[in-house]
Amino acid sequence: MNKPYLISESFVKIIFVSTIILMLFVNIFVFYLKQQGDITMVNQAILLGSFLFIYVAFLVITYAYMLRDLMRAIHRYFFINLLKKVVIHSQPEYRDIVNLTKSKNLTHTDLVVCIEKIYSKVLIGKDQKIEKHKKTIQGYIKEFPIERLPEHIRRNIKILKSAKVDNELINTIIADTQKLVDTNKKPLRTQKHLSAASLFVGLVGIYLSVYSIYQP
To answer: I need a labelling partner for 54 at 20 to 30 A (CA). Which of 38, 108, 118, 120 fits?
Structure first.
């Protein structure tokens, strides 16, 4: 629910680079076969088929990524209109806005983007209806750093706020905690890159296996 978008931009880039490398590998292999005088029709068909399979797979992933971006933009557009109506009607607490976001199968990042777009219209005077609720939107923006933190830390921050602890101290705690959270996320990014590399190695392995089976 919190991750409706499964294909990341970095993953698509890695697939693209892997495809280019594999294409070079195929061309080098064809050159080697020509040098050995072993470029038969079967070899040509296998090489061409492997290349087309990989190329089509890359196109499918790329267009899936583009479609995802298009759907996300459409989803955000409708959510912005809904969010403006909700703010004008009831000026809800930020937590209520977060729950509304989840109910629409959107992430907190989507919410941040939508609120920032609404606020930009307020600043340039493009939307007079929502302009009356500028302070409400500013209050939402102040909650952005807190919402990125794990739930148990958010609860403690709210306790500190209710105890009227100095805001500077709270902001320092939030910033330091966010750095720690980001540091812990680095192994996940490394794991994603390793998965993409494994996919490339797997494609090469499949290619070599198919070639060895059908080689005359």
So the answer is: 38
pLDDT tens figures, 11-54: 556 666 666 666 666 666 666 666 666 556 556 666 666 666 76
Local structure of 177: helix, strand or coil: helix
> Cα separation of 188 and 185, whole Å?
5
CA dihedral 129, 133, 134, 135 (to 10 degrees): 170
Q: How many CA atoms lie within 13 A of 50 on its CB side?
A: 26
What are the contacts of 119-126 at 24+ separation with CB within 8 A? Answer: none
What is the C-alpha to C-alpha distance for residues 135 and 141, in angstroms, rounded to an integer?
Answer: 10
Q: What is the structure's pLDDT at 41? A: 57
**CA gap 79, 82 in Å, rounded:** 5
Tokens representing 20?
């280019």
Q: Count Cα neighbours of 108 within 13 Å in the Cβ-side half-sphere.
A: 14
What are the CB-based long-range contacts (under 8 Å, 24+) for 79-83? Answer: 79/104, 79/106, 79/110, 79/114, 80/114, 80/117, 80/118, 83/114, 83/115, 83/118
Closest alpha carbon to 106 in 35, 8, 36, 2: 2
Residue 106 and residue 45: Cα distance in Å, rounded?
Answer: 46
Closest CA to 196 of 3, 4, 40, 17: 17
Amino acid at 65: Y
**Structure tokens of 102?**
């989840």
